[in-house]
Write a structure and sequence with these properties.
Elements: H1 19-34, H2 43-55, E1 61-62, E2 69-73, E3 87-93, H3 120-139, E4 147-152, H4 161-167, E5 174-187, E6 191-193, E7 196-197, E8 201-210, E9 214-215, H5 225-241, E10 251-259, E11 265-266, E12 269-278, H6 281-301, E13 305-314, E14 318-319, H7 321-335, E15 340-342, H8 353-356, E16 361-369, H9 389-403
Parallel strand pairs: 3-4, 3-5, 5-16, 6-15
Antiparallel strand pairs: 1-2, 2-4, 6-16, 7-14, 8-12, 8-13, 9-11, 10-12
Helix pairs in contact: 1-3, 3-9, 5-6, 7-9
Length: 404
């Protein structure tokens, strides 16, 4: 399989990934892939990361939540001989998904109903590898500023483990934060960058409707619950769409509607579940009030009482321009500017956004598609896999960013 090489004319930077470390990281990623753990249950994963960092002479600290950890390279308190100042944080998410692994590879998941189907094993390995390289450079006095490695649990659990990690103080002393996310639409050896929103907000809705119910022969004497639920399902998305700027991309989509058990009985209750996605940060902040008002109005029009459980998920990831430029310059130094492509805003959610509510930063899309393939295996599928060359690219991207 052919992969793009680094640009031989690009400025030379220290921290090129040694072959022995490359092989070790490949084995580490495959071990994680074989032993996936769900959010807030990542005890084996946390222990494996902690052990490897300690063997490198570092002092990782497990988060108060019991899983996930941070590890500083250099200090922010002026210890002699260490780089000082605000730290650059490199973030990885470490949890897996509750779906079966359907691949026929020797490193397939050994845990029934669990799989690293979103690439978090790659993200974790990339940050670990960058940390090992940067730790050696720090020992040589070649690290210009402190770096914090952040291995975050529970990204797949709304509202995301990032919010709790922030409460644990993971951003104390941090001035900037970077992350990557696997992208099966981008070739391995390349990254995608975008200034501004790169993901969507994602919230969850649970709606319960109640009314009198009765005989289908006399709907005029009842709360016609089936009609009420149907109108909420159809009308609420349309009402909301007319109350925000269309460019905000705010959309309510239902995934479940349940009501009734007999053809001649108008039920007393109905339930709907769905998601709200939004491309614009300001519109997302207004969304709960808009949704509550629209549901109440439509339900009341049909004589139903509504109870709404609006579960806040995550805001959009909004990449800061200077941080995107840092990732651009780092990739250009390693692989040349031709290894960088523009990327579009996704409707997927990512809790990296919670960090950006506190410090500037950016997320890059890390290409994991084997070069030459016309389509990749999409995320959140049991057969998802990556071209592992992406690990080398991610490590060198983060290493270069820390050195610039």
């Amino acid at each position: 399989m052919s992969h793009p090489a680094a640009d031989p004319l690009a400025p030379a930077l220290p921290g090129t990934l040694p072959e022995a470390l490359r092989a070790e990281l490949l084995a580490f990623r495959r071990d994680l892939h074989m032993h996936p753990e769900l959010g807030n249950q990542e005890f084996r994963t946390t222990a494996a990361i902690k052990d490897r960092l300690e063997r490198a002479g570092l002092r990782p600290r497990v988060l108060a939540t019991g899983t996930g950890l941070i590890c500083d390279i250099g200090t922010v308190d002026g210890t002699p001989g260490s780089p000082v100042g605000e730290a650059l944080a490199l973030r990885a998410d470490i949890d897996a998904l509750p779906i079966p692994d359907t691949k026929t590879v020797d490193y397939a998941s050994t845990v029934p109903g669990r799989a690293h189907a979103c690439g978090h094993d790659v993200h974790t390995t990339v940050v670990l590898g960058a940390g090992l390289v940067l730790a050696e450079l720090a020992r040589q006095g070649r690290l210009p500023r402190p770096v914090r490695l952040l291995f975050q649990p529970a990204e797949e659990v709304l509202p995301g483990g990032a919010a709790e990690a922030v409460e644990c103080g993971v951003l104390d002393g941090v001035g900037q934060i970077l992350a990557v996310h696997c992208d099966p639409r981008v070739d391995a050896g390349r990254i995608g960058l975008r200034i501004g929103p790169i993901t969507s907000a994602c919230d969850r809705l649970e709606v319960a409707l109640e009314g009198s119910g009765g005989h289908t022969a006399r709907p005029h004497l009842t709360t016609d619950m089936v009609t009420a639920a149907a109108r909420v399902a159809v009308d609420v998305p349309a009402v909301i769409a007319r109350r925000v700027d269309a460019r905000a991309g705010l959309a309510v989509t239902w995934g479940r509607l349940e009501t009734g058990h007999a053809c001649n009985v108008i039920p007393q209750r109905a339930a709907l579940s769905g998601t709200l996605r939004c491309l614009d940060l300001d519109a997302w902040r207004q969304a709960p009030d808009l949704v509550h008002a629209a549901i109440d109005e439509v339900a009341t029009l049909h004589g139903a009482k509504s109870q709404i459980d609006y579960v806040r998920g995550v805001p959009p990831v909004v990449n800061e321009a200077a941080s995107v430029q840092l990732l651009h310059d780092a990739m250009a130094a390693r692989r040349g500017a031709e290894a960088i492509e523009d990327t579009e805003q996704s409707l997927g959610g990512e809790d990296f956004s919670w960090y950006l509510e506190h410090v500037p930063g950016a997320m890059a899309r890390l290409g994991v598609r084997p070069p030459g393939e016309l389509s990749g295996l999409d995320l959140h599928r049991g057969d998802f896999d990556v071209d592992e060359y992406a690990i080398t690219v991610g490590v060198e991207l983060f290493t270069a960013a820390a050195l610039l």
